[in-house]
Amino acid sequence: MKVSLFITCLGDVFYVNAGKAAVELLERFGCEVDFPETQTCCGQPAYNSGYHDKTKAAAKNMIKTFAHSEYVVSPSGSCAYMFHEYESLLKDEPEWQEKARELKEKTYELTQFITDVLKIEDTGSEFHAKATYHTSCHMTRLLGVTEAPLKLLSKVDGLEMIDLPNRHDCCGFGGTFSVKMPAISEQMVDEKVEHVEETDAEVLIGADGGCLMNIGGRLNRQKKPIKVMHIAEILNSRGER
After folding, report:
1. How far apart are CA 67 and CA 215, in angstroms?
2. DSSP bridge partners of 162
3. What are phi and psi of 232, to 5 degrees?
4. Are strands 203-206 and 126-133 parallel, antiparallel or unpaired?
5. How far apart are CA 65 and CA 217, in angstroms?
6. How far apart are CA 171 and CA 137, in angstroms?
7. Are 101 and 87 in contact (CB under 8 A)?
8. Domains (ranges, CATH) in the chain?
9. pLDDT at position 239, please?
10. DSSP 133
11. How far apart are CA 233 and CA 117, in angstroms?
12. Are 59 and 89 contacting, i.e. CB atoms less than 8 angstroms apart?
């Protein structure tokens, strides 16, 4: 099975280890992974800010980039979902719209791909810690991936999972929302941090770099001793703590 990794901007710059872990996981389960070097930003920041015409150039580049791929897998539900928006974005260009549909149908978030395509529920990983999981908005509400991450985490040897209170609440990142509405965003992430603390977790796990960066940044500013990790790192672990 051939898989192309869609690393995303945040994955490429800030969450390199998550990208490496994703590749190692996929290869361990028999996937042949490639990394198309012409991939760039998926265009989500511009799209969410209303600059749809500007987004089309990014969309077309990504469609061409992954045209050869059998499957496209990303360690970000938010960015994976952006590929679903291309079909509507390019509705006035039938040829491109059809190509966008093809890309959407072969694109998966990492945990979704592991459970739904590879049919794996136990990655054989081991990680000793008490942890809680943050459900990101785009991944759960738009992409519809809700069970896969928790199903895989429940099989990790040594990992004690604690349910995060109000886990479906937004962390306040929201892409450009946190830049345009910083005061509101700050209050939202402060509330999220309070809920994380309520669990007494040592580790906060997430599947989207934006959320991890936002919550992790706030935890760091408040000097909270809670480690923030991408789910790919946990699922690829072999007894770490």
Report:
1. 35
2. 132
3. -60, -35
4. parallel
5. 32
6. 9
7. yes
8. 2-116 (no CATH), 125-240 (3.40.50.10700)
9. 72
10. E
11. 20
12. yes
Distance CA 12, CA 10 (A): 5
Predicted confidence (pLDDT) per residue in 140-172, tens digit: 999 999 999 999 999 999 999 999 999 889 998
Q: Which long-range contacts (CB under 8 A, 24 or more apart) does 147-153 make?
A: 147/115, 148/109, 148/111, 148/112, 148/114, 148/115, 148/116, 149/111, 149/207, 149/231, 151/115, 151/121, 152/111, 152/114, 152/115, 152/121, 152/122, 152/123, 152/231, 152/235, 153/205, 153/231, 153/234, 153/235
Sign of CA dihedral 156, 162, 167, 172: negative
CB 75 within 8 A of CB 207: yes
Cut 0.85: pTM above it: yes
pLDDT for the residue numbered 219 = 96
Cβ atoms within 10 Å, residue 62: 26
d(CA 88, CA 79): 16
Q: For 206-234, how does the pLDDT look when each residue is reduced to its tens digit (9 = 90+)?
A: 999 999 999 999 999 999 999 999 999 99
Q: Which two tokens stand for residue 174?
A: 């929201």
Quote the strand ranges of the chain, DSSP E: 2-5, 32-34, 71-74, 107-109, 126-133, 157-162, 203-206, 227-230, 238-240
Closest-CA residue to 117 (of 129, 107, 126): 107
